[in-house]
């Protein structure tokens, strides 16, 4: 039975209960993940992190939230008031919507009803997630524009350009999954991973998705939109109080949303890891939520690890990576996946499939070799140019030349 | 300041320097797997002990020469070492010290010798803890302690009076004013020959201090 047909006969009260549960889970996870991120990054930098409010500082995020709510809410005089207020609301609402199609558990008994902790199973579920993420961009770009200030505008522009660019790479990395599962519904995609998870079968898609999900959520090392060193705070510079808290909430819910999507598409969703399938009999299927949760946490740790390790990319490098590397590689990979899929569907002989795979590998190796040769050629050309002629005007001394002069006693 | 050139550099100097300086190398980015090493650095650091000192609960020992708050010392019999000379106030680059001297008199001997400090104030809003006052003090009256928790919530409380700065009376000391040690003068004090108070110095008639 597919997820859609199990959910179909849910009475209204279960649908409402699920909606509330998902919302509560997201907010709680946000509080937990803010605390977790600060603690983990702190340990990576040999610090303690927040440890004063509550046991192990667990209530720190909640205390910060209360503090933000009690702060003065400032709307700049130059701001477009209506849009300024609307922007954080758009951001904070759209990020929750992605969770509607993500199955958090396998089949469970929910107060006497056989159901799945998934609000709905759309036939185009994953596209729906992409759509909500795109609407979320409006929150950012409108916030940047309506602030009536330079840095937010720059941050908003950067952010929207970034999210739109990486959404292409992200969407393309879904295509491999769609081709393989033959469906866009999250339930069917999970069902298609019953033998092998997609992370094994479609590893290039997975790698590209992981890179683009970091870009999509504006997180380090792709946090150019709120680059505090250059843009103050980016699009949310002028925001304060609860509106700022909404952006903060949106950022973390977004992280959890893309992590959940990655879990669903590539790690088999709430299904148990290989060899641990017997756990699905425990707790009436509720144990599957623990697997889902652990997978999402693993992604979240990866996010934090990236932030603790990598410096921020320059804007042009970032765009180059997105448009000139991720998208072309993705398109080529989709061609390979589609061809392989077609060959297996038409039950081609093993030799044909092996021959095609070998040809692809050879082509990739050849491309790498050509690329390396062209790089060597560029270096040779650069060497032919020779040293720069001395300028005819006085220029500031090089540091070494100063030291030399001192040695000579001038 | 031989590096400070106002004249334009003579032609050829740059060329010469460029020839003698090392060429810039290593502008190529490191290889992919070399760059991955950074992930191991952050991951392994997670399991190291944090460097954090949890300050209000754990108060670390400061170095012996730490420049903490000041103290006005006493001789072993309880007389104050400060002679009200104001050299500390003169030495202070932040103008944080205010001293008013006064003559010692018969029946009101605060310090050995002629003068003592009637008013002694250190303004900790101005003090930069440079220690020049300590170097200036001719009698070692002013020294610095290892105490660093001086913060307070009003400006008035941060101007420390003489009473706040004076060292406490230790065993064998008498609270001044009291006469100098019998058959001695201020030179004996300055040579640090007074080791304790003499019973005859106690003019209150009993008790070591009041």
Largest sheet of chain B: 3 strands, antiparallel
Number of strands of chain A: 2
Separation, N- and C-terminal Cα atoms of chain A: 89 Å
Helical proportion of chain B? 10-25%
Main sheet: strand order of chain B: 2-3-5
Shape of chain A: globular
Compute the number of strand runs of chain B.
Answer: 5
Strand line-up across the major sheet of chain A: 1-2
Weakly predicted, low-confidence segments of chain B:
none
What's the architecture of one domain in chain B in CATH terms?
A: 2-Layer Sandwich
CATH class categorisation of one domain in chain B: Alpha Beta
The overall number of domains of chain A is 2
| Mean pLDDT level of chain A | 84
Shape summary of chain B: elongated
SS-derived structural category of chain B: alpha+beta
How much β-strand is present in the residues of chain A?
Answer: under 5%
Distance between the termini of chain B: 62 Å
Query: Given the structure, what is the number of helices of chain B?
Result: 6
Strand content of chain B: 5-15%
Please characterize this protein's 3D structure:
- Chain A has 410 residues and is mainly alpha-helical.
- Chain A folds into two domains: 3-345, no CATH class; 347-376.
- Helices cover 67% and strands 2% of the residues of chain A.
- Chain A has 15 helices and two strands.
- Chain A has helices spanning 3-8, 12-44, 60-70, 81-97, 125-146, 150-181, 186-192, 198-201, 203-216, 228-231, 241-266, 287-309, 315-345, 350-385, 399-408; strands at residues 107-110, 113-116.
- In chain A, strand 1 and strand 2 (113-116) form a beta hairpin.
- In chain A, helix 3 runs antiparallel to helix 11 (241-266), helix 6 (150-181) packs across helix 7 and helix 11 (241-266) crosses helix 12 (287-309).
- Chain A is globular.
- The mean pLDDT of chain A is 84.
- Chain B is of the alpha+beta class.
- Chain B has a domain at 70-194: 2-Layer Sandwich (Alpha-Beta Plaits).
- Chain B has six helices and five strands; from the N terminus they run H-H-E-H-E-E-H-E-E-H-H.
- Chain B has helices at 13-20, 32-45, 87-91, 132-136, 162-165, 186-190; strands spanning 70-72, 97-103, 115-123, 142-144, 159-160.
- Chain B starts with 12 loop residues before the first helix and ends in a 20-residue tail after the last helix.
- Chain A binds chain B through residues 40, 42-48, 305, 308-310, 387, 390, 394-395, 397-398, 400-402, 404-406, 410, and chain B through 2-3, 5, 8-9, 11-18, 20-22, 38-39, 41-43, 45-52, 54.
């Amino acid at each position: 039975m597919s997820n859609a047909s199990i959910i179909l006969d849910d009475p209204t009260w279960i649908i409402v209960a699920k909606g509330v549960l998902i919302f509560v889970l997201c907010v709680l996870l946000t509080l937990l993940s803010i605390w977790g991120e600060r603690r983990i990054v702190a340990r990576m930098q040999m610090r303690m992190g927040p440890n004063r409010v509550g046991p192990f500082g667990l209530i720190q995020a909640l205390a910060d939230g209360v503090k933000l709510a009690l702060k003065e809410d400032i709307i700049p005089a130059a701001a477009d008031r209506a849009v300024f207020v609307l922007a954080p609301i758009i951001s904070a609402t759209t990020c929750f919507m992605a969770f509607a199609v993500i199955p958090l558990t396998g089949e469970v008994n929910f107060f006497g009803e056989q159901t799945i902790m998934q609000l709905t199973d759309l036939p185009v579920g994953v596209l729906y997630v992409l759509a909500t993420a795109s609407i979320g961009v409006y929150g950012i770009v409108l916030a940047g524009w309506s602030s009536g200030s330079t840095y937010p505008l720059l941050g908003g522009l950067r952010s929207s350009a970034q999210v739109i660019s990486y959404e292409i790479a992200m969407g393309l990395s879904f295509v491999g999954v769609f081709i393989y599962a033959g469906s866009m519904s999250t339930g069917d995609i999970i069902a298609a991973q019953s033998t092998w998870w997609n992370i094994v079968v479609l590893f290039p898609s997975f790698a590209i998705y992981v890179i683009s999900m970091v870009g999509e959520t504006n997180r380090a090392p792709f946090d150019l939109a709120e680059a505090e060193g250059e843009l103050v705070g980016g699009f949310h510079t002028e925001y304060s109080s609860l509106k700022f808290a909404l952006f903060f909430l949106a950022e973390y819910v977004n992280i959890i949303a893309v992590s959940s999507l990655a879990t669903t598409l590539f790690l088999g969703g709430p299904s148990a890891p290989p060899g641990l399938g017997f756990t699905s009999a425990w707790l009436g299927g509720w144990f599957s939520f623990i697997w889902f949760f652990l997978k999402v946490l693993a992604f979240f740790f990866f996010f934090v690890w990236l932030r603790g390790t990598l410096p921020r990319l320059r804007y042009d490098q970032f765009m180059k990576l997105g448009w000139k590397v991720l998208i072309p590689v993705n398109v080529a990979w989709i061609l390979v996946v589609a061809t392989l899929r077609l060959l297996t569907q038409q039950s081609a002989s093993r030799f044909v499939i092996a021959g095609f795979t070998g040809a692809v590998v050879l082509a990739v190796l050849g491309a790498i070799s050509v690329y390396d040769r062209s790089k060597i050629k560029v270096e040779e050309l650069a060497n032919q140019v020779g040293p720069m002629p001395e300028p005819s005007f006085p220029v500031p001394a090089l540091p070494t030349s100063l030291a030399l002069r001192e040695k000579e006693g001038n | 300041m031989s590096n400070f050139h106002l004249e334009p550099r003579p032609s050829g100097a740059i060329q010469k320097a460029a020839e003698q300086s090392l060429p810039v190398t290593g502008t190529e980015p490191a290889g992919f797997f070399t760059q991955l090493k950074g992930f191991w650095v952050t991951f392994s650091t997670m399991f190291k002990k944090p460097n954090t000192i949890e300050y209000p609960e754990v108060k670390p020992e400061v170095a012996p020469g730490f420049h903490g708050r000041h103290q006005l010392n006493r001789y072993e019999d309880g007389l104050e070492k400060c002679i009200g000379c104001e050299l500390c106030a003169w030495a202070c680059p932040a103008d944080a010290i205010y001293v008013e001297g006064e003559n010692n008199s018969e029946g009101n001997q605060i310090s050995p010798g002629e003068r003592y400090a009637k008013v002694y104030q250190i303004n900790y809003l101005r003090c930069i803890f440079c220690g020049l006052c300590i170097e200036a003090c001719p009698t070692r009256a002013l020294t610095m302690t290892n105490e660093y928790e001086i913060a307070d919530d009003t400006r008035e409380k941060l101007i420390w009076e003489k009473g706040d700065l004076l060292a406490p009376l230790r065993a064998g000391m008498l609270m001044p004013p009291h006469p100098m040690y019998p058959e001695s003068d201020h030179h004996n004090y300055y040579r640090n020959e007074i080791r304790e108070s003499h019973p005859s110095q106690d003019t209150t008639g009993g008790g070591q201090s009041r």
